[in-house]
Design a protein that fits this description.
Blueprint (H helix, E strand, L loop, with lengths): L6 H10 L1 H21 L15 E7 L2 E7 L9 E7 L9 E4 L9 E2 L13 E7 L9 E2 L48
Antiparallel strand pairs: 1-2, 2-5, 3-4, 3-6, 6-7
Helix pairs in contact: 1-2
Length: 188
């Protein structure tokens, strides 16, 4: 992560006005420290964090219990996102869960069968992101998950997360820092 520095300007200020130079040095240090605590870059954008090492899923009835293993260096602001999809290409998420700093999600309850009575297969993946970075590369659970229950129904597509649109997956807080408001397509 690039840090803010005073460079030659601070050195010149220290020579001409040492008290003002010391004040600016403390302000720069405070700015860098605050950015580090918030998980943002004081200059530019952070790089994506490393991908988690693994995602593990245990099924109990109609609940999927997700645990994330991440042995990389981290910070307090790191957030984990888990997506549940109904297709192995992960094209459109059904569920997007943010687990903040926890690497164990609240159980995800899903129906065992679709509305036509066919058993559903669910595909799960996870990734991490700092508030000031793009998301990491997702890590897929190595196989699909089926549930053991009697609930029948269709899970609607998720509305996305962060600055992403409903059709995008693996976006976390979003790739872009902002997204314009979405409104009606036309005025009546």
């Amino acid at each position: 992560m690039a840090k803010l520095s005073g460079g030659r300007m601070l050195a010149k200020l220290n020579r001409e006005n040492p008290n003002l130079g010391a004040l600016f040095a403390r302000i720069i240090d405070s700015h860098n420290h605050m950015a580090e605590q918030l998980g943002v870059a004081p200059v530019g954008q952070n790089v994506a964090p490393p991908s988690p090492n693994a995602v593990d899923v245990t099924v109990t009835g109609e609940q999927a219990h997700v645990r994330i293993t991440d042995n990389s260096a981290t910070n307090r602001a790191r957030t984990y996102f888990t997506e549940v999809h109904s297709d192995p290409s992960f094209s459109k998420p059904l569920v997007v869960k943010s687990s903040s700093a926890s690497r164990s999600l609240e159980p995800i309850t899903l129906p065992t069968f679709d509305s036509g009575g066919l058993m559903k297969a669910y595909y799960i993946r996870t990734y991490s992101q700092d508030p000031g970075s793009p998301p990491s590369k997702p890590v897929d659970y190595p196989t699909y998950v089926t549930l053991d229950g009697a609930t029948q129904g269709d899970v609607p597509s998720a509305q996305g997360s962060g600055t992403s649109t409903p059709t995008q997956s693996a976006q976390g807080f979003g790739v872009a820092p902002t997204r314009p408001a979405t409104g009606p397509k036309r005025a009546v």
